[in-house]
Every structure is written in structure tokens, then in C-alpha cells.
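User: My instructor asked us to take a sequence, write out its structure as C-alpha cells, and then describe one feature of it. I'm not sure where to start. Here is the sequence I was given:
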Amino acid sequence: MHVSFTELWMAMGPLAKLIVGLLLAMSLAAVATAVERAITVRATRNALPGLEPEWTAVLAGGLGRPETREAYDRLVRRNLLETGAALRHRLGLLATIGSTAPFVGLVGTVLGIVNAFGAMANAGQAGLGTISAGIAEALVTTAIGIAVAIPAVWCFNALTQRIGRVLVELECRAQTLAVATLRGERS
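Assistant: Let's start with the prediction itself. The C-alpha cells for your sequence are:
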């Protein structure tokens, strides 16, 4: 017996349809967030050289002076904090979707099982045909919940790693510039 998604949708109860709709909205939010964050991380990485003129201006006073060193360290620290905060913006949404989607699907599972038992009680018999729509509803919502969660978690982890690499690159650029300035002062 082959059942199409349309037939499954029509057999679902209103609460299960609401759960599926919620999961689809969560999936769209996760995809949109992941794409937007990936674009932002790439643009930020490409813009890192643009910070060097500001750093160089501070270094013009010479790192040998304590006040210049302090100003430079604070500027670099501020750039790291601002960049990190900007890049991590909305990553919590991906983490939340990744961790909650299976549970939202589980609510649909419970509703499907309840519908299956309700159909069985109304029919007065316990045949597979009586409960199959409710069981199918339960399995579909479970599968959708997992299908939404896995890519959200993968995207969260991948973006977190990329952001970490950008911040390390930012700090390395700042340290390289400082070392080059110190070498120039000692020559």
C-alpha cells in the first residue's frame, strides 16, 4: 500500500498539521540564518585587512611607549570583541532549532499515537488499518523533526568553527603588525 504525502497530510489531525507547519517554519528560519551568517562570516574575513590602517595609526606613536602599547592592546581587544559578537549574532537561533526540533517532532509523535488510539477506540477494533493513519502521522512528524534538527546543528557547528578561525586570524594579524612595529623600533 502506497500512501502519498498529500494523503498523509489529509489524514493528519489539526494539531499534527500545526506541528508540521511549525517544523517547516523552523527549517526555513534555520536555512535563512545559516546562509546569512555564512555570507557575513565570509565578508568579515575579507574585510580584515581594512582594520590594519587603524591599527597602524595607533602604532605610529611607537610600541615602546607604554601608553601606545595600552592603546593598541585595547583597540585590538575591542575589534576582537565587536567582530566576535557581530559574527555570533543569531547563532543561538540555529542552536535552539537544532536542539528543540526533535522535541517538537516528538510532540507530533505523541499526537499521532493519540489519534491512532482514538481511531481504534471509535472503530471498536484494533486492526492495523484502523491505526495506520495515526502511526504514519507519528512517524512523519518524528522524521521531520529530526530532518530539521540535523542540518541546523551541522550549520551551527560549521559556522562556530569558521567564526573561531576568523577571530584567530584577526588576532594573528594584530600580533604580526605589533611585532613588525617592535622590530622596526629596535633597528
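For the description part of your assignment, you could build on this observation: The radius of gyration is 27 Å. Try explaining in your own words what that tells you about the chain.
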